[in-house]
Amino acid sequence: MSVREEVLSLLGENARYSTADLARQTGADEDEIEATIEALEDEGVIRGYQAVVDWRRIDDEPVRALVECNVTLDRETGYDDIADRLAKFPEVESLRLVSGEYDFSMGVRADSMSAVSRFVSEKVAPVPEITQTVTHYLMTTYKERGVEFDDGHDDDRLSVSP
Amino acid sequence: MNPSERTQRVPPSGIRRFFELAEEMDDVISLGVGEPDFTAPWSAREAAIDSLERGRTSYTANRGMAELREAIATTVDEQYDLDYDPDEEIIVTAGASEAIDVAFRALLDPGDRVAVAQPAYISYVPGVIFAGGDPVRVPTREEDAFKLTVDTLEAHDAGEADVLVLCYPNNPTGAIMTREELAPIAAFARENDLTVLSDEIYAELTYGRDHTSIATLPGMRERTVVFNGFSKAYAMTGLRLGYALAPPETIRAMNRIHQYSLLSAPTTAQYAALDALEHADDAVAEMRTQYDRRRRFVLSRFAEMGIDCFEAEGAFYVFPESPWPDAEAFAEALLDETGVAVVPGDVFGAGGEGHLRVSYATGLEDLREAMARIEAFVE
Asked: Where in chain A is the domain with CATH 3.30.70.920?
């Protein structure tokens, strides 16, 4: 793996690794690591750093839903135009064009179920190109971005072994 | 009852003592563990579950399921250029440890001399003694990066032995041997008519270069028994599955003992192993990537502390010099005062004195914390 690939892989695993620890793990020096991260950010490869949160463990857990959207296109309006418009809503956490039965898969987050419903019925459904929406409320997250949300398994190995 | 004289000759393992010391303490970060911190690939575990659901709970053929032996033959050929006939030259055992024990019993007559390159995995010398052989310890040297050399062999009259045991990639040092470095050892074995027992359980875990089996050197296949297994590469230690590769007459002799003691290796584990060989390449590659990062991390940290540590290129151990000449005293004090467990090198035999075995089969968070505690302790 190149240093660039190593850095991406390591930050994907833990975005809080210090440059010193990244250097130790890759064998590159710290200046090279810093330059690599800067280049990845400048080129838009790295778009941000966020914690993976298990919201169930938070008192006021937000409500999240996946909304399937079907759209019709015309000569003036393509997928990108519609996506551009939808992505601007702060309630929209993620937006992806997908293959299959529907066109967009939209992650929505709000404070309550009624707030999510209101957002979908008042802001999304009225968009002229959107022909249909199906809203799935998220009930339990078991795994997100590779992290399992169980209680983890304790290390049951013998503490010293041959 | 009186235990036999030969069991009395073998002292309990030094590992045991450190295990007991560590068990008495809370909040220990252990760098003393000789097994992966990963779990077996899910697809292999699922294959084991599936075999139980299908009621595959009988014995298998003594030498292991034919399908598994075929898969082993294909894998060792592709990965290490080892060409063995699955019907005649492969035996599946309960861990590589059983294969090693059975090999000693199959090959040794009373008083046969067995040269054991050390420091090394703790079972070889006891295995030789239990089989009635006479162990000759051959200490490798730090200045040779713990590789075995002809000089060392000659210095300990290993040429007069009947059998030579070596383990590369090495537990506890992490040393590996390249084809060029193995060539003079192979020549020495041929000249002195030595049988070579080569424990290659860590073969999948080399960093930066591929593993070479001594059995692939000219004239060595007919005098070598290769041991490998699923414990380390596939993180399947508790499933207890290994195998040996050797010419037909040796496998026949080993099977004679194996069929009367074990009958066959655990069936559930054989199904898991079969799946691992067929589906776990990516999982193994991912584990290797993680180990390599931790290896570099730990080596960098020791370098920053000014602790001498040769660059280990295999297994999941580094073998730094103990900051105190008495490694055992250091390891005990370190455990006592910082809760970090490492194993003193002398536990692994001659040549290990003054060193520590540090296992990096532990997540990076714990490694980072353990190294910080070692640094503070040394200062």
From this structure: 57-140
**Do B33 and A161 make contact, defined as CB atoms within 8 angstroms?**
yes
Q: Do B171 and A162 touch (CB under 8 A)?
A: yes
pLDDT confidence bin for B14, thresholds 50/70/90 = confident
Taking CB atoms and an 8 Å limit, are A24 and B296 in contact across chains?
yes
Q: How many beta-carbon contacts under 8 Å exist across A and B?
A: 59
Between positions 167 and 196 of B, the ones with CB within 8 A of A are 171
Q: Say if B45 is an interface residue toward chain A (CB within 8 Å).
A: no
B35 interfacial to chain A (CB closer than 8 Å): yes
Q: Is residue B261 within 8 angstroms of chain A, CB to CB?
A: no
So what CATH class is A3-43? mainly alpha
Beta bridge pairs of residue B134: B113
Q: Which of A6, A9, A160 sits opposite B15 (nearest CB)?
A: A160
Q: What percent helix, strand, coil does chain A show, rounded to 5?
A: 35, 20, 45
Q: Pick the residue from chain B with its C-alpha nearest to A155.
A: B37
A70: exposed, middle or buried (C-beta count within 10 Å: 0-12, 13-18, 19+)?
Answer: middle
Q: Return d(Cα B230, Cα B278) in angstroms, integer.
A: 13
Establish if A146 touches chain B: CB-CB under 8 angstroms.
Answer: no
Q: Does domain A57-140 have CATH number 3.30.70.920?
A: yes
Span B135-192, pLDDT tens digits: 999 999 999 999 999 999 999 999 999 999 999 999 999 999 999 999 999 999 999 9
Residue B116 sits at φ, ψ, to 5 deg, of -115, 115
Q: Is A76 exposed, middle or buried (0-12, 13-18, 19+ CB in 10 A)?
A: exposed
Q: Buried (b) or exposed (e) across B109-139, using 16+ Cβ within 10 A? A: eeebbbbbbbbbbbbbbbbbbbbebebbbbb
Q: What is the mean pLDDT of chain B?
A: 97
ipTM surpasses cut 0.95: no
pLDDT at A153: 67
8 Å CB contact of A25 and B364: yes
